[in-house]
Amino acid sequence: MHSSISRLFTLSLTCATLVESNPRILRVAHQERGILTLGFDPSNEPGESLQLLSTTQAGYRPGWLHAIGNRLYSISRTHFPNDSFVDAGIFKFEKLPNGLSEIIDSTSSHGEGGVHLDTSRDGRTLASTNIDGSTVSLFPLGCSGDIHNASYTFQYNLTQPGPGTGHSQIQSNPHAAVFHPSEDLMFVPDRGADRMYIYDVSNTQDVTLLRNMTLLPGTGPRHLIIPDLGNEQSLLFLLGELDNTVYVYSLGFSHPDTLSRGGANETLQVALLQSISTLSRDGPRTEPINEDLAGELELSADHKFLYVSNRNAVSAEQLDTLAIYSVDLSSSTPLQFLGLNSTHGKIPRHFSLSSDDQNRYVAVANQVTNDLVVMERNAHTGFLGRVVGNFTFGPLDLTTDKGPMAVIWD
Ligand SMILES: *[C@@H]1O[C@H](CO)[C@@H](O)[C@H](O)[C@H]1NC(C)=O
Ligand SMILES: *[C@@H]1O[C@H](CO)[C@@H](O)[C@H](O)[C@H]1NC(C)=O
Ligand SMILES: *[C@@H]1O[C@H](CO)[C@@H](O)[C@H](O)[C@H]1NC(C)=O
Ligand SMILES: *[C@@H]1O[C@H](CO)[C@@H](O)[C@H](O)[C@H]1NC(C)=O
Ligand SMILES: *[C@@H]1O[C@H](CO)[C@@H](O)[C@H](O)[C@H]1NC(C)=O
Ligand SMILES: *[C@@H]1O[C@H](CO)[C@@H](O)[C@H](O)[C@H]1NC(C)=O
Ligand SMILES: *[C@@H]1O[C@H](CO)[C@@H](O)[C@H](O)[C@H]1NC(C)=O
Question: Which stretch is the leader sequence (predicted)?
Answer without folding.
Answer: 1-21
